[in-house]
Each structure stands twice: as structure tokens, then as C-alpha cells.
Amino acid sequence: MGLRTWAPGLLAVGLLALIYAGTLQRDVNGSAHDYLLDTGEIQVALNLWGTIHYTGYPHYTILSALLTGLGRGLGMGPATAASFTSLIWSGLTLLVFYRLLGRVLGDDYPLAAFTVLAVGLAETFWLHSIMAEVYSFSLLLVSVALLLGVQLHEQWQPGKWVWLMGVVGTAVAHHRILLFLLPVVLLMVWPQPWSQFRRRPAVLAYSLLAFLAPFAAYLYLPLRAWQGAQWVYGQPGNWAGLWQQFTGSEVTGALLRLSENAAGWLDNGRFLSGHLTQQFPGVFLLAGLVGLVWLVAHNWRLGLAFLAGTLILPLFIFLFPKAVWAPAVLMPALLCLAVGVAYGLRTVGGKRPFVRYAGWLGLAALALYLGISNRPFVTALTTDPAGREMITRLQGLAHPEQGADAPPTIALPWGSGFFAAAYGLYVSHELSGLVLVDHRADFAAILDDAGVILTPALYRDYWPPDWWAARVGEVSYSTAVPEIIAIHRPGLVEESPLDVDFALGNGIRIRSAQLATEALAGRVTLTVDWEAQQPISRDYSVAVHLLTQFPPQSPDDVVAQADAAHPVHGWFPTSRWAVGEVIRDVYVMAGAGEGTAVSPTAAPTTVAITMYHVDESGQFVNGEWLVLPLPAP
To answer: Which of 73, 245, 255, 369 has the greatest number of beta carbons closer than 10 A?
Structure first.
């Protein structure tokens, strides 16, 4: 192929690269969407030459860590460099796919280019090209294997066959689901391998060696564990841990289960069809199947191979819909289906220039439609601020003062929040001085050693107080800094100034109350120390109001408020308080209700705080109000 034949493909892939670059994920991942479920983990691992979850993906992690290091050397940020590796893998995939289409279609390279453009803007292809994930690398291996298979179908070469087995072996070592490539490429080239094996048995040995050799890359996992890498998933440093990760046995037993009734099978069918039509319109999918049937009629081995490539993975998803992330695993099938679309258009338009040009225009229109419709969703996922917000939330605890007894221990459940914190701790070093643990930690031992465990308040539904009590026994809760809960053993009296000593009239007093204002951030922060002076049988709610005057004369006098169903961000109902126990609580209010700045026109002057309950008639019953003048910022 000369430059003239490569030009349409280079233009299509170049345009896609510009689109991908404009939507590339450039900061720590914050999205908990299934598309990005592991992205935060991979962002950390690639920047630390670490290892990732089952099944380890050593080829991807080694090569992508190398590219990430090169990207950072060129001035990219850590998250950008990790995402850029996927753009590279996808760019190579699309160029190989263009070459593959050129072999199947003959000389219609513009049709191949428009097909590449449409495929590249499908939701799953787009997203996996702009975030740190393993599936762009998967698709590169698939496209190379298919191209080699087509070339061998056209002309048998024993040396190229061995290379093909090496690529397929690498693909299977990378992700077991890619074993589907073996029957696909065998359909393309059979019976040549069998004839070759019978004449030259050594070729069989070379083929097996080429297929199995890539699995040696799994030595990378125990190697990094033995080297003490900062980010190592599981326990690959011993045989049991390495085997568990290699096989994925941590989860496969629970996920590889067939439906037990007709309703389940119907749900599976709807699940599969929903994901297929999420990527391409139904007419595109139907045209792809028709085109592949047409290809079977013209070249039955090649057609059956691509038809098998289209059907095997959707069948697996239909049987085991929970075993994999469907949009990612469907990408190879959609690639084969796109071959059918292009072949059908090439066949129909072969002797009819108008139909040929209409096919080009239809694919261009499809690409435009996909680009416009998918961009908002793609951008929303890759710019989700939750990861950055997690780092900001924890920064109030980072960099502990010298002389502190022990670094603060932060507990986060394994997931996007944990990965964001790990990114801030190990990669960007914004959270230096913290100890990070996940839900598998020995929390009782940590409490006995460090005395306190910190966790973001937003995880109350994930591990509520009863969850903690079941694991560590009796504990108390307080607010360490805004939005961060301190979990510690109960203490009858804690260090707390008695500078307010204000009784609410319900058996609870406010020992201390401190106000701080942040003019630039537009926030007012109230830190309050509660104390139960007698047993409390009722669960009281908290009202904290930023006011222009007290008592307010109209709703306009309430500039902002930070009410809570229970103290400590809902973690510690008052009925659980021990007599004499001091509970620190923090409330943050944003002025003017906008969360951006304290309104100069509203002129807030005071903060009022009390506790209240709702009586049997549904009426609010307030305690005494403590009114504090607003300090100057």
C-alpha cells in the first residue's frame, strides 16, 4: 500500500485522534460508572509501574506504564499520560482495521475510511480511547490477529502463521475472553495449518511455543510484589495469590451462572440487545449481518470467520451477562460486524457509482450522528469532578504536623473514591502523610494502634455505624474536618474548651462553638462540641442557620443553612450518646444558597444553632437557640 491508499485512512484516524484528544480524561477519575469502574486503579498503577486486578493484564500494564512514563517526560500530567496510552492503542487499532478493510473490500479505500470513522465514534470505542483502560489494547490485538488471518487466507506463509499464534497467545494471556480469536482465525486459514503440521511437525511445536510464550509476562506480577512496589493488587508474590489472579477465581464462580428460567433468558436477551443498540442503530447492526451473509456466499471461509467473530462474544454475554462489562467485550464483535456493513455497501455499490457514493455519505452521516449524540455523555464521564473533590476533601488531613503521634489513617471502600485518594497520595503527592486502607483492613487492630480511623461522611450508607460496631465493637463518632468522620473508642471526657456552656434544654449542652469565614470560598464553618449531660432517649436533629438577623422575620433572612437529621453528618444519633461524652461536629454553609460566595446584598450577621424534634402531632419543637455573631473574614 502506497501513500495514496493510506491517505483516506490516515485522514479518518487523524480526525478521530483530534476528537479523542479534545475529550481525553486529564485529571484523576471521579466517575463510578461501569465504563470507568477500574480507571482510577489503572491511572495509579501505570504511574507507579504497579499491577492491577484480575487477570493482571501484564502486557498492557508493562507497555502502558512505559508509555505513561514517556508521556510524563514530555510534560503530560499523570492522568493525561495514562489516558494517552489508550489513545495510542486505539489509533493503532483503527489503522490496522483500515488495512484489514482494504484487504476485504479490494480498492474502495474511501469506504474503508468512512467505516473506520463511524466505528471510532461509537460510544464504547470512543470512551475506551480516552481513558486508562485495558480494552483499547485488547482491540489492537484482535485487529492484528484478524488482519494476519486474512493475509494468510489469501496466501499461506508458515512464518506468518507462527506470528499469528504469538498474537493470539498474547491476546488470550491479556484477557481470557479473547480465546474466541482461535476458532475465528482457524476458520480463515484452515486446512493449511493441518497440512503443514502433517508435513513438518516442528511447525506445530513452534506454534504452541508462540502461543504459550506470552504467558511468561505474568512473572511481572510476583516480580513487582517482591520488589515492594507501592501498588500491587492481591497477593501475587505467592503461588496461591498469583494463581487466583491469573484465573480470576476471585469472582468467576459467582459470575458464570446460567439463568434458571424463561424470564431470566428474556432479560438476558433484552440486556444484550440494549447494549448493541446503544452502540449502533439497529439498521447498522442488521446491515452488518446481511453483509456478512453475503460474504459467506462469496467466500465462505472468510465470511464464516467474520460471522463467528460477530456472534461468539454476544452469545457469551447472553449466557453470562454479569460476567463481563458488555460494551467493552462487544467491541471485537462490532468490529467484525462493521466489516459486514462495509462489504455489503461495496457489493451493492460495485457497479453503481451513485449507490457507492450514497454508502460513503450514509457512513459519514452515521459518524456525525454518533459524534453529536455521544459527546455529552463521554465528556460527562471523563470530566466527573468527584475524584478531584475526594482529594480536596482529604487535603485538610494531609501533611500532618511534625511530632504527631501517628499519620492519620483514612478508610475508603475499594472503588473510585479509594483510587482518587491513592492517586493523591502516591501519584500527585497532594495527600502526603496519610495512611490509606480499604474495606479489607483489620479495623479493630488499627483502632487499638492508632486510636482513630477517618472516613468520608458520604460512605455512611456503605458502612453504617452498625457495620462498624459488628467489626470493631463499641465506637463513637465525631467530625474531624468538614465531611470527614472520625471513628474512635468511646471516651467519657475528651479535650474540649468550655467557652460557651450553652444548655439546649434537652439534656445536651454546647461546650464550645467556633466560627470561621472564608470570603474567597464563600463559606462559613461552625465547629461545635456537644455534650450529653444526662441519658438521651430521643434522637434530635440539628438546625444551623446563617442569618441576616435573629430571630428571622422572613425566609429572606435565612441566607444559608446546614441542617442534619442527626449530628456528625447523620452518623451519631443522640440516643447513642453516653453521659459526659463530648462529640465534635462541623457544619459548613455557603452564602446565598449558591455554594459560591456569601451574598453582599443579604449581609449575613449571625449563625444560630439548636436541636429539634418532631412531636406526635407533626410539629417542630425547637430547643434553645445559640446565636453567634459572624466574625470578620
So the answer is: 245
Q: Which three cell numbers stand for residue 215?
A: 504467558
Q: C-alpha grid cell for residue 164?
A: 499469528
Q: What is the CATH number of domain 495-633?
A: 2.60.40.10
Q: Quick check: helix, strand or coil at residue 554?
A: coil
Domain ranges of the chain: 36-382, 385-490, 495-633
Which helix or strand (DSSP H or E) is residue 120 part of? helix 109-120
Beta-carbon contacts of 90 under 8 Å, excluding residues fewer than 6 positions away, are: 16, 20, 120, 125, 128, 129, 136, 139, 140
Residues forming a β-bridge with 72: none
- Give, in order, the Cα–Cα distances in Å from 264 to each of 34, 107, 275, 315: 22, 46, 17, 15
pLDDT at 598: 44
pLDDT score of 601: 52
- pLDDT value of residue 418: 96
3-class DSSP assignment, residue 478: strand
Three-state DSSP at 388 gives: helix
- Find the radius of gyration of the CA atoms of the chain: 30
555-603 confidence digits (pLDDT tens):
889 999 999 999 999 999 999 999 988 999 999 998 644 433 444 455 7
Residue 43's pLDDT is 98
Q: Are 610 and 623 in contact (CB under 8 A)?
A: yes
Contact 173, 220 (CB under 8 A): no
Strand partners, 614: 620
Mapping DSSP onto H, E and C, the string for 413-471 reads CCCHHHHHHHHHHHHCCCCCCCEEECCCCCHHHHHHHHCEEEEEHHHCCCCCHHHHHHH
